[in-house]
TrEMBL record:
<protein>
    <recommendedName>
        <fullName>Neutral zinc metallopeptidase</fullName>
    </recommendedName>
</protein>
């Protein structure tokens, strides 16, 4: 895990292989198998609610799972990462490793809706539309990792 970086700091370069890490975003880097996130992305997202950070990191972790298991037919990578995020977060809650308040489900849906293909920095068909993102996250929440396997 690379973790936090400041994408606005032009004096420090942050890379995934030869590519610079994105400003105002988070990323799983397959080159060195790391997860990183821009400080401003997390701060801005946190203003919408306290579960933003959990969701973003779990989503990027989902990319790591997909990348490290190429023998599994996962389907659309971004939506599978959302599904695995739901599985990880709610699996952790079931196991008593993390606790969510009654507002968590609504907040996760709101956050996912804000970062669908409709987001200003996202390209069409990049992450799925808002409804797809919420549905895949909910699939992971309800059925765990097994619910995330297969075609979308």
């Amino acid at each position: 895990m690379v973790g936090l970086y400041d994408g606005t700091d032009s004096t420090t370069e942050h890379f995934c292989g030869p590519d610079p890490l994105p400003v105002d975003n988070a990323q799983y880097c397959y080159v060195d198998n790391s997860v990183s996130w821009d400080q401003s992305f997390m701060q801005d997202g946190y203003t919408t609610g306290k579960y933003w950070v959990y969701m973003v990191i779990a989503h990027e972790w989902g990319h790591a799972v997909v990348e490290q298991n190429p023998e599994i037919e996962w389907g659309e990578p971004e939506l599978q990462a959302d599904c695995l995020a739901g599985a990880a977060l709610y699996g952790g809650a079931t196991d008593g490793l993390i606790a969510f308040g009654p507002d968590a489900t609504k907040e996760f849906a709101t956050d996912l809706s804000q970062i669908g293909d409709e987001a200003s920095w996202s390209e069409t068909n990049d992450h799925g539309d808002s409804l797809q993102r919420v549905n895949f996250f909910s699939l992971g929440k309800e059925y765990g990792v097994n619910g995330c396997l297969g075609d979308d």
